[in-house]
Amino acid sequence: MEREVAGTPVRGVEVDPETRCAHYHADRDVVALRFACCEAYYPCFRCHEAVADHDAERLPVETPEPAVLCGACGAELTPREFVGEGDDHECPDCGAAFNPGCADHYERYFAFEE
To answer: What is the DSSP pairing of strand 110-111 with strand 59-60?
Structure first.
């Protein structure tokens, strides 16, 4: 399934207008992340596994291009802006609260230098 969120296509399972999906659908689950393998946004790694026909590839965390989409306002953040957002876990443009639990999965989306 694909849904446009603020003019950006987001692929996944039961994606709502703010990027929540069948796997993560709490109030604060309002981000989609771009995967390096297909240059497409998905609400979560489980959605990528469910609808993509290939294995996921992570983007380097220092990628200068946007790779995180705020489902509330459509703002795009770089991986570093998203990962380094501090304790606020919110969109810097609209203030929408992001799920702080996303930090548990950063390594599924972004490659960090060792």
So the answer is: parallel
